[in-house]
Structure formats: structure tokens, C-alpha cells
User: Fold this.
Amino acid sequence: MQTMPEPMRSRNTESPDEHEMTESIASTEALKVVPKSRVGTQDNIWADVVFRSVVIFCAVALVASVGLIVVELLKESHVSISKFGFSFLIKQVWDPVNEDFGALPFIYGTIVSSIVALIIAVPLSIGTALFLTELCPRQLRGIFSLLVELLAAIPSVIYGLWGIFVLAPFLRAYVQPFLAKYFGWTGLFSGPKYGYGMLAAGVILAIMILPIIASITREVITAVPRVQREAALALGATKWEMLRMAVLRNARPGIFGGVILGLGRALGETMAVTMLIGNRAEIARSLFAPGNTLASVIANEFTEAVGNVYLSALVEMALVLFVITLIVNALAGLLVWSITRGMPSRALA
Amino acid sequence: MLKSSQNISVRRRVTNWLALGSICLATFIVTIPLFLILGTVITRGIGALNWDFLTQIPKPIGETGGGMANAIVGSIELLAVASLIGVPLGIGSGVFLAEYGRNKWGNMVRFTADVLNGVPSIVIGLTAYALVVVVQKHFSLLAGSVALGIMMVPTICRTTEEVLLLVPQAIREAALGLGIPKWRTILSVVLRTASAGIVTSIMLAFARVAGETAPLMFTAFGNQYWSKSINQPTAALPLQIFTYAIMPYEQAHAQAWTGALVLISLIMFTVILFRFISSRSTIKGAS
Assistant:
């Protein structure tokens, strides 16, 4: 018994402030436990089996809930799947009265608004990650990373609220006239300036996915071995050259993974987009035009939808969205994994 | 390194400063929306914030006064029931991953948790609709809680796994060496050691789902009055904000902003508390 607290103590030296308390709890707990439990008795073997089954049950429930999502979506959308087949994905019609539905305008809106978001968010978030890991003075690091984390904690509906009353009027008054004047020739920035629309949705999505991309990028940048940086500096590189050649190049697959993870979030984002995109099921070239996404059409129309075909068409949209985000997230997971855990030998070097 | 910069060409030096400058500028730009949003929520929301707002149910548009008490309570009830589903499953599967999951089955569960984490919230809402609302034939607090509960599982699961792996192997060996059975080792030694981390993971999951609106739209549905039972539709703070935000009335907008202020204060409080606790526990793990 005398030797027992040793391992506990070795751990406790790591946390001087909790030293006293944790040790006393751990040791009294162990004192209580030991006499009671007789090693290898039938009871203990059974208790181990039961405990193990309980945690395995939890894990199975987690896996089952994903399976359940797939099954329920398929079940609820089978009317639409059997009625429209593959043409659902490529039709532009959205006609609840005649019960004729196609998802193309929504797929288009989902992808375009997410691409706009990525174009804005990627450079900003990589810059932020570099600043936080490489440039920021140690004392300020906590504050800045807290600010970025708080940005991630703001609920989607509040982004939407802010978007409606602050962002959209601002875009209409200042940004859209500017874009129309100088870049109107591209055809992307023309037409009536509502404020709402694809552009507004893209901007709000950009703000929402910034923290995700930034935090993953930070993680992979931190995983780049110190010696790489030192080698670059020793060869006479300036700080930026070091960042570009030693840090960014090594972290590239991981950063790409973070970007794709951000894309996954943008594709499925619902509330803020619903409140800002303008909700019109049409494909327009101009980013000023209102659009619609898979998620926003479900949010807008599901509670008002009447008839089996209409409902199941909306559920099929959710199925399409699920499959898209599944592919995107799996890809992102593979990429992030490849840089943070897939190369232990390099990280250790 | 720049002390010996006589040898560095002007072009390289200018590129260096331009690049570093734009990195700092990017960080600055990223923080702007946060202050703008928080600033707007506070200035527009503080006006209608009073005791009535926190204690009254909504009045019809046109009448002054009224509040969101039912939505605040509804949100808390939803979170409470959701955590009955999400917390045990999350911790259980986290324990599985950390203690039994160093194999291909563990990898499969890990991958599935990440998949579930990435499933758009509205898709989870639709699933809960199909699972509960279609069966019960009416919207209910229960359906909303199922949706939020499923969303909590992956967050809690992966964070629990992480904090359990931080517990030194020597502690497990010491307990097992004393003849304590494995289940008791995990429950009384490993989980107890990691309890601070697990609590923060639960709070993180709370913060994540507390602001969710999309999964509640066709499950909890919303309610202008008090919800009397778990089988009735219930109001929730984010839902109420959404409903008021898209109404064309000035008064409704003011209520929406105040609701946003209350919601954001609750969430920010949780996140900052989480940061505080977790920064203390990471010092423990790192040093």
C-alpha cells in the first residue's frame, strides 16, 4: 500500500495547484476499492464484460444514428426518387402546384454561395493562422485566438439577423455599386442591387467558416517541425520566405483539408443563408441576384409543404445535401489526417 | 536574421514586409465582424431588455411589452432533455474509443463520429422529424431534443476520447496492478482524473447546440405560449429570434435583437468559462 500513491504523485507534480486535493481523493478511493475487489473472481469478470458491453453499445448507437439518418432520408424520399429518378438532379423546374420538382437551381446555389465564401475566407483565415502561430507576440496569442473562437460560437441565426439589418443594407449602399462600376463587365456583378442575394449569402458564410479553416490551419502549421523553419532561416531566407517555403509548403495538404472542411460547413449552413439569399429558385449569372440553396429551401418550405411528392422532394434535397457533405468531409478528414498523424517520423525528426 | 540584411535585396525585403503586413491585416479584418456583430447585438438589444422580457410570454404584435420567457425556458428544457440522450452516449463512445478502440473498430467509430459531426444540422432535423414527429403525428419538445441530442454526441465523444488519452498510462497500470478490475479503473480512476476535461466537453457541446435553429424548425416547431409537456411543441430562443427577424414589424425586430443579446450572452459565457477551465487543464497536460 505504501508504494501505491507513487504513480499518482508523478502525475500530480504536473499540476501543483491541485496537488493536495487530487492525491487525497485518488488514494482514499483506491484504499476503499482494493479490499473489496478480489482479483479474478467471477463477479469482476462479469462486471468487466457488462461495462465493456455498455460502452460498446454507446459506440454502436453512434454508428447506428448515422445509419438511421440514411435510412430515414431514403424512406421519406422514396416517392420523389421513384417518380423523378435521376432527372431530379438536373431539372430546373420547381413547381409545387403541378408537383414537378428539380434540384438543379438549389445545387447550383449551394455550390456558388460556398465558392464565394471560400474565395473570401481562405486567404483571410490562412493569414490569421500564420499570424497566430508565427508572428503574434506570446502575450496576445490567447486574446486573438479567443476572438476567433468567439466568432465560431455566434449562432447562425444571429449571423442571419445581423446580415438582414446590417450587412445587406451595407452591401447595397457601398459594395454593390462599387463592384458594378468596376467589375460589372464580367456579368457577375450586374442587375438590380437588393443587398440580399448570392453575394450576401457568400459573405456571411465566409465569416462563419473563417474560424474553422483558421483553427485547422493553425493545427497543421504547428505540426510542421521546428527544424524546417530553422533550416530555411539558416539558409538566409527572410521571414516570409521561410513561411512560404518551409511552413506553408509542408502544411499544404493539411491546409487544403481545413479548407474543404470549411466548405463542408458552408454547404450545409442553413439559417443565415435562408435569411440572406433571397430565396428564388432560379439560376442567374449575377451574384447580385437572389438564389436558393438545398438547405434554405428545406428550411423555408418544409413546414408549408403539402402533398407527398412535395414533402419527399424536399427530403430528397436533404439526401443530396447529406451525400455532398459526406464526400466533402471524408476528403477533408483524409487530408488533415495525412499531415497531422500520417507522418509521425517527420514530425519527430 | 534581418540584422545582416545588407545582403538581402530590396525586392526581397519589400516582399517580406508586404507579406507580413498583409498577414497582420488579415487577422485585423477577421476580428472586425466579431466586434461589429457583438456591438450591434448589444446596442440594438439592450433597449428592450427588461424584467418583463425575461418573465413574460410574447404579446401579439401591436401590443407593447411581452417577452420571451417561454422561449428561454423552452431552450433550457430542450438542452436538458437533449443532454439526457447526448451526454451518456457521447461519454460512453468516448470511453470506448480511448480504452477499447485502438483497433479497426475504433477507427470506424472515430470516422463515423467525424461524419456525424459534419452532417448539416437541417438534415439531422429532418431525421428527427421522420423518427419522432411522423410517428407521434405532432411536433414536440421530445423531437427537438432528439435532434439536438444526436448533434451533441460526436462533439462529446471526440473530446472525451482526447482528454482520456491525456491521462497517463501509468495511472491505469497502477490501478490495474493493485488488482482493481478494469471497469472500476476506468470509472473511478481514469474518468475521475479526466472529469474536468469531460465537463468542458459537455459545455462545448451545449454551446454548439444552444444556438441551433434549423433542426428545431420542424421538430420543436415553436410556440407562442408555455409548453406544458414533453409532447407539445415548444418555443426556443433561436427559433423565436428567427420568427421575429423575418416579420415586417419594427417591434418584432427589437424583440429579436434582445433575444439575440440574451442568447449570445448565455453562449459567450459558456465558451469563456470553457476556455478558462480548459486552459488550466491543458497546462496540466502539457508541462
Q: What stands out?
A: The mean pLDDT of chain A is 84. Chain A has two domains: 1-36, 87-348. The longest strand of chain A covers residues 94-95. Chain A touches chain B through 109 residues (CB under 8 Å).
